[in-house]
Amino acid sequence: MRTEIRRTDASARDYYRLLTALVVPRPIAWVSSTSAEGIDNIAPHSFYTVASVEPPVIQFTSVGAKDTLRNVEEIGEFVVHLASEDLFEQVNATGTNFPPEISEFDAVGLTREPSLTVRPPRIREAAAALECRLHRIIPVGDCHLILGEVMQPPLRQACWTGAIRS
Ligand SMILES: Cc1cc2nc3c(=O)[nH]c(=O)nc-3n(C[C@H](O)[C@H](O)[C@H](O)COP(=O)(O)O)c2cc1C
């Protein structure tokens, strides 16, 4: 026996809950970006996947307009980090709605590490980082898909060896 949930029977909020409960597991893109004023931002995004192989493109979704989306529109660059289990608390803390003038690096106590190919810094505590140049932004309903071409993936040696072997 199945329950048919028609769109007209449920609120947008309930549909959001339904979709995020059914589309699992979702990896977390832990995204650093920089505003035109030079404030470094960090935020987790769970609507995240690989979009293309050649060129290597990844994508994440901004639900509504947030600092990350505005920074990516302004600067055209960002870095996506591996959100590993040991960083669970820091990842969640950066999901708090800090005002744009506050950097999550400073508020949460994470360390800036210069990127090689883009302006936003990497998060030193993360084991892997994907430096990205904006490929394009696609508006979808109340969301924006942000696609970025991966320029430079600095990884700890163990990540590289594990990824190549898998
Ligand atoms: C685990 C987790 C996953 C999240 N996934 C998303 C997501 O996919 N898209 C989104 O817009 N917000 C997502 N959020 C909420 C944002 O991280 C949150 O709104 C954040 O304050 C945005 O920061 P910003 O305004 O600095 O960009 C998530 C939060 C957490 C804790």
Note down, in words, how this protein is organized:
- With 166 residues, the chain is an alpha+beta fold.
- It has one domain (7-165): Pnp Oxidase, Chain A, CATH 2.30.110.
- It has helices at residues 12-22, 67-75, 88-93, 104-108, 157-165, and strands spanning 29-34, 40-45, 48-52, 57-63, 77-82, 112-113, 122-123, 129-140, 143-152.
- The strands form two sheets. It has a seven-stranded antiparallel beta sheet with strand order 2-1-5-8-9-4-3, covered by helices on one side. A two-stranded antiparallel ribbon has the order 6-7.
- A hairpin with an 8-residue loop joins strand 6 (112-113) and strand 7 (122-123).
- The chain is globular, with a radius of gyration of 17 Å.
- 28% of the residues are buried.
- The protein binds flavin mononucleotide.
- Residues 28, 41, 43-47, 61-63, 66-68, 92, 95-97 line the site of flavin mononucleotide (FMN).
- Flavin mononucleotide is lined by residues 28, 41, 43-47, 61-63, 66-68, 92, 95-97.
Itemize the secondary structure elements and their pairings.
Blueprint: H1 12-22, E1 29-34, E2 40-45, E3 48-52, E4 57-63, H2 67-75, E5 77-82, H3 88-93, H4 104-108, E6 112-113, E7 122-123, E8 129-140, E9 143-152, H5 157-165
Antiparallel strand pairs: 1-2, 1-5, 3-4, 4-9, 5-8, 6-7, 8-9
The structure holds flavin mononucleotide.
**Strand order within the widest beta sheet:** 2-1-5-8-9-4-3
Q: CATH architecture, please?
A: Roll
Relative strand content: 25-35%
- Which ions and ligands are bound to the chains? flavin mononucleotide
- How many separate domains make up the residues? 1
Shape: globular
Number of strands: 9
Low-confidence residue ranges: none
